[in-house]
Design goal:
single chain, alpha/beta, Rossmann fold, Arc Repressor Mutant, subunit A, 5-stranded parallel beta sheet, 10 helices, 5 strands
């Protein structure tokens, strides 16, 4: 198992890293404390698990960036206050699981193992709040607007996002620059009223018409600057 750890608190991150390196099932550990360094090294490290310290401001944006760069990595939020608002924010950011602030080392490894199997542990009170939040959003979140069609490039981007491709993989498939792909991703999220790639995949199943882009939409494959 390859584990990526991010915490702006050096002692915290390195302490967890030292603990993990001593375990037989851990093949490699990378500890990062700087956001830019994290994004620069995340793709090359090819982690199975990313443990992200969420105690500091803007870290949820960092987590979304990691999920965008490495969509196949299982991301786990560390040091989460076990209140509904914070757990829901982690879910919105794309985390697969969370470690409460009072979790022990043994509990951390149990949660990591479950997350790799596609499972998670959640306090029953938090689970209830999650269901309430989903129901509330169903009532208040508008569906995609039929009059706001995706362009051909945006439709193709949406298909690839639903397949779990990273921005880099989409750029390679479409022969576009990373910057152009990021613009397309932003437009797709905005037009579909989505907050994550998983939500895009669900929306495409429920609303297949959103991929019907106007005739004459450019589908050429020239490389953008």
């Amino acid at each position: 198992m390859r584990v990526l750890i991010y915490s702006p608190v050096r002692l915290f991150g390195e302490g967890i890293g030292a603990f993990l390196r001593a375990l037989e099932q851990i093949d490699a550990v990378l500890v990062e404390h700087d956001e830019k360094e994290l994004e620069a090294h995340a793709l090359d490290f090819d982690a199975d698990i990313a443990l992200i310290d969420v105690t500091t401001r803007n870290v949820l944006v960092v987590a979304q960036g990691i999920a965008s760069l490495c969509p196949r990595v299982t991301t786990i939020a560390m040091a989460v206050a076990e209140v509904a608002e914070d757990v829901i924010a982690c879910a919105d950011a794309g985390f697969a699981a969370y470690l409460p602030r009072n979790a022990s080392a043994a509990e951390m490894m149990a949660i990591v193992d479950l997350a790799l199997q596609g499972e998670t542990v959640c306090d029953p009170r938090i689970t209830r709040s999650l269901f309430h939040e989903i129901a509330r959003r169903k009532q208040t979140t508008p569906p995609p607007d039929p009059n706001e069609c995706l362009t051909s490039r945006e439709a193709e981007t949406a298909r690839m996002l639903a397949r779990g491709l990273s921005n880099k993989e989409i750029a390679r498939e479409m022969h576009l620059s990373i910057a152009t792909v990021k613009n397309h991703v932003h437009s797709v999220l905005q037009k579909l009223h989505a907050v994550s790639r998983a939500q895009i995949a669900a929306l495409l199943v429920e609303n297949p018409w959103v991929l019907r882009f106007p005739q004459g939409g450019s589908a050429s494959r020239k490389v953008d600057a």
